[in-house]
Design a protein that fits this description.
six-stranded mixed β-sheet, Rossmann fold, four-stranded parallel β-sheet, about 15% strand, about 40% helix
């Protein structure tokens, strides 16, 4: 289980490579919710998601040869690895499934990565990337099941605590669990860490219910970023110990949250990036009057054509 010291070390290691993203403190009873809401705008991070934190920490902690680095991704992790590799002067090869939106594939091209589109899901792309890594000797960077990645993502929690004192709870969307694993390892029950997943991708939810990591069929509007079939083995004991609640939201509630962020705040969030807020906006997460709630808006790589004027 990663420690707070490892997260602090990661913070120092990546400090000059990632943005210290801002927090937006909303007015009281914003969106008609009787709580103080603090949006952690990780959607403004390099590449449009939190993923560069883990990618930079992993690469900077590794010895990278001529074959460079390799990763499988639904889009955001791949973009982060490609971006970090480009900035640090390494080759990057990214495997993505066919469900990956075109805008995310285009972003990979912008960062100069070699791209392979294969498989119908993240897990199939991951298997193909592992075979390729064995052939080339490239350093594989897992999207969430790597201690260096977890520690890098945990720096978001460390940063948020510095920015907002006295939070009661933090809502975080979950795919493979790297972000919530890192943040929960940082807070260690000093703040309620709440997992939010789409109903059609209840990966952590079902694993917690089963008491062990299980495979889950995934789909829905956020499948490209939250569609991991199983959570990481490294994050799961962290979640069992430090995640206080696991909630599910519908695709319709996610889309409503996306549109609310745009219409009221002019914030662009992809479906996965709006999932945590969907729990609060819909009432699936029932905040206490005056509760200080942090909400991580973790990604902005949305299809802009889906937004209302």
């Amino acid at each position: 289980m990663i420690s707070r010291i490892e997260i602090q070390d990661a913070g120092r290691r990546i400090a000059t490579h990632v943005r210290r993203t801002p927090v937006l403190a909303l007015e009281e009873k914003a969106f008609g919710i009787d709580a103080r809401i603090f949006f952690k705008l990780e959607c403004l991070q390099h590449t449009g998601s939190f993923k560069p934190r883990g990618a930079f920490n992993c690469i900077l902690s590794s010895t990278i040869g001529d074959a460079g680095v390799i990763a499988a991704s639904g889009g955001n992790h791949g973009a982060a690895v490609a971006y970090a590799a480009h900035k640090l002067g390494h080759r990057a090869e990214i495997f993505v499934p066919v469900i990956t939106p075109k805008n995310k594939v285009d972003r990979l091209k912008q960062y100069g990565a070699a791209i392979t589109i294969t498989g119908n899901s993240y897990s199939e792309a991951l298997e193909a990337s592992r075979e390729r890594a064995e052939q080339t000797g490239a350093v594989a960077i897992h999207a969430y099941d790597d201690e260096r990645v977890l520690a890098g993502q945990g720096t978001l929690g460390m940063e948020l605590e510095e920015q907002v004192r006295g939070l009661d709870s933090v809502l975080i969307a979950v795919g493979g669990g790297g972000l919530i694993g890192g943040v929960a390892a940082w807070y260690q029950n000093r703040v309620r860490v709440v997992a939010v997943e789409p109903e059609r991708a209840p990966t952590l939810h079902k694993s917690l219910a089963a008491g062990q990591v299980v495979d889950v069929e995934t789909g829905g509007v956020a499948a490209d970023s939250l569609g991991a079939r199983r959570v990481g083995e490294l994050m799961f004991p962290i979640a069992q110990k430090f995640v206080t609640q696991s909630l599910l939201v519908s695709d319709e509630e996610i889309i409503e949250a996306q549109h609310a962020l745009w219409q009221h705040l002019r914030l662009i969030a992809e479906p996965g990036g709006a999932t945590a807020f969907a729990a609060l906006l819909s009432g699936v997460y029932k905040s206490r009057p005056g509760e200080r709630v942090g909400v991580v808006l973790c990604g902005s790589n949305a299809d802009l054509s889906s937004f209302p004027a």
